[in-house]
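Example 3.2
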Amino acid sequence: MRELKFMVWDTKLKEMYLPSISEVSLDCEGLIYLYGEFRPEYQERFIFLQFTGFHDKNDREIYEGNIIKDKHGIKWKVIFEMGKFSAFCNTESIIEEINVRKDKDLTFEEEVIEKLDMWWIGSEVIGNIYENPKLLEEAEK
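Structure, written as tokens:
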């Protein structure tokens, strides 16, 4: 069974941290508490990013919202969608890499298809969408 843990982005302080239970907590209805106290403004202030259960090539934990780079240099955004974690990449980046490698490596297209299901293998966490938004812009170009 996958370990359930979260990183928290504090939109007010612009900080990412791994909270202790006494600091920031999330109840089963999705309500957010700070030091055991509920306030409506906490719902907008804190963004919880779930641990995927996967580690990158450097054994760093991968969380929802991370930006990872694969062995071809393509940047992917880690997302949780339709009940599972996956990675998103701008299609133009993939097409460009396929064209560059067309004559060199005919298996790249197969690697891209495999990447959609096994996106974390061989990848490296290079940042996240909150602390490093420019990386996300590069990944979506």
